Structure prediction request, 436 residues.
Amino acid sequence: MNETKTQIAAAKAGVITPAMKRVADIERLSPEAVRDEVACGRMVIPANPRHARLLATGIGIAATCKVNANIGRSPERSDEAGELDKLRLCVQYGADTVMDLSVGGRLNEMRGRIIAESPLPVGTVPLYQAADAVEDVTTLAEDDFLEVIRTQAEEGVDFMTVHCGLLSTMLPLAANRMMGIVSRGGALMARWMAHHRRENPLYTRFDDILAICRAHDVTLSLGDGLRPGCLADASDEAQFAELDVLGELTLRCREADVQVMIEGPGHVPFDQIAMNVEREQRVCREAPFYVLGPVVTDIAPGYDHITSAIGATAAAYAGAALLCYVTPKEHLGLPGPEDVRAGIIAYKIAAHAADVARRRPGARDRDDAMACARFNFEWDNQFKLSLDPQRAIEYFCASNPDLTPEQRDHCSMCGAKLCAIKSSRALGGRGSGGGA
Prediction:
């Protein structure tokens, strides 16, 4: 096997790669700072050399908070063209990474198209393809799991979720939960272990997985197979037992020069979110934390992009580095294009709010520019600065059907007579610069 020198191996050797230089430019960091963050494992740059169109992205506490969007068809819904349209929406609305979670026929061909068209790092969950190829996951041999990982790495996948921290001793702990195991990958792995009465092969064969990932510079995203699926199960013994194993595997990844990040919950009450992030940073030696939400209440189906963005903001402020979006269709169905759009924008808001709160370099520049544009009634600039310009224009035109942006010289809510900004301008408001 011809091995590629991984980003972390290069960083440990003092080398600044082209990917590190690009990340440094984007993040307003020095190349040396990026190199040092990658070397110690606080930042990952998922960058499989076989992904030709990739634009390198840095994920870590020193960088701006990133957003992942999941796409992928189910056996019943969507098709290759539909998922490629979703990929284009991910790029258009500013997702930083994308995961293809497809199941069904012709998965290699579809994933190849996504990798070929995506400038974003592409992630997968190899266990899904392995299980989808058979009638029953329990018929798979250990080598079958590894073969799918190898195939996807050779195709150019940049990062992979592997559910290797869920061990057989944890299954009784999960059985005591209100909702048991809600992770698809975790449930599949649990079934395999229970049937064979053997340990998780993704754990026992972890050195083989590391060899594959090192050969192709695939970043491992250590999956949370025991993430809580409801508030009642959050922060329990099962979840933290798995996290402890992920901490052990984090060290093994770094020793093997394989980049690694850690996946996290799930459904978590708001007051437990910071504790969860801080615990991951301690147990996993500050490896980048990749969280799904967290969803902070279980009673809002159809609005879980909102309930989870609330939790995502708290997690990102506490130190999470990558937020996996949740769409309005979560718990209800496969998301369509409009759901993808809503999920990405909700999470871009969450990530940006955390960047501002953490005072990351330049994070507030766009907000200050928006404030100036609003004060000066520069509607076109307001649209350009928006996270979703099309939606802003749509709402403006619906509220002002007879006016062009140039003709609108007052704010949208109060009318010309009672416009607070017009009154403030008359009093000598500055409309430029910015506060502290």
About this structure: The chain has two domains: 7-357, 365-426. Residues 375 and 424 are 9 Å apart (CA to CA). The longest strand covers residues 66-71. The radius of gyration is 23 Å.
